[in-house]
Amino acid sequence: MKLILATNNKGKVKEYKEILEPLGFCVTSQSEAGIDIEAEETGKTFSENAYIKAKAIYDIKKTYVLADDSGLIVDSLDGRPGVYSARYAEPGKRCDKILSELKGVSFDKRTARFVCCICLIKPDGDVLSVEGRCEGKIGYEKKGENGFGYDPIFLCGDKTLAQMTDDEKNSVSHRGNAAKALMAALKK
Ligand code: IMP
């Protein structure tokens, strides 16, 4: 069963190949499949954006297509940056922006979560959507060198995601949890 991933992000391609190939899928990235499009993420939710990205490729290839969308929700910021996580500030300034917006906010009100939605469209057009979350708090300063994006300010337990090894992060992360939900749904 041929499956196209709606991404060229090498990390994501590797992660999803590891999950999907043992389930019988022959996984290719969108560039390997010769598709050079980037759907505009106009959705209001992660799930809508994942669907938009998958559908753009499904409309061309009519095979299995998988897309994901993820981001950070901060409760005291009315859910920001949310679906705008990748565009919230210039790269390198996003963590500082959140920290300054949360200046003076007490620790118990710094609750936040990462969310990842995965959308799989099947050759007959059937849509499977799953979600994974990672609950935590926004710290007071950046800590750790691993990971990417908002990892240095996101506390999960007593460590930030950037202070965790890849395996530690995968075992608690929103993407890891969404992948587990996908596997469970596909095995049904
Ligand atoms: P996308 O789903 O790959 O488009 O990710 C959207 C944005 O959310 C990224 O650019 C990051 O800023 C943020 N993000 C998503 N997942 C993570 C994560 O695991 N750690 C840190 N930031 C993340």
What do these coordinates show?
The structure is a single chain. With 188 residues, the chain is an alpha/beta fold. It has one domain: Alpha-Beta Complex (Maf protein), CATH 3.90.950. Helix content is 30%, strand content 25%. The longest helix has 16 residues. The protein is elongated, with a radius of gyration of 17 Å. The site of inosinic acid (IMP) has 15 residues, from strand 3.
Summarize the entry for a quick read.
The protein has 188 residues and is α/β, with parallel strands linked by helices. It is built from five helices and seven strands, in the order βαβαβαββββαα. A seven-stranded mixed beta sheet has the order 2-1-3-4-5-6-7, sandwiched between helices.
Structural class: alpha/beta
CATH domain class: Alpha Beta
The succession of helices and strands, N to C, reads EHEHEHEEEEHH
Q: How many distinct domains?
A: 1
Layout of helices and strands:
Layout: E1 2-5, H1 10-20, E2 26-29, H2 46-61, E3 64-74, H3 94-101, E4 111-121, E5 127-138, E6 154-156, E7 159-160, H4 166-172, H5 174-187
Parallel strand pairs: 1-2, 1-3
Antiparallel strand pairs: 3-4, 4-5, 5-6, 6-7
Helix pairs in contact: 4-5
The structure holds inosinic acid.
What would the keywords be for this entry?
alpha/beta; 7 strands; seven-stranded mixed β-sheet; Maf protein; binds inosinic acid; 188 residues
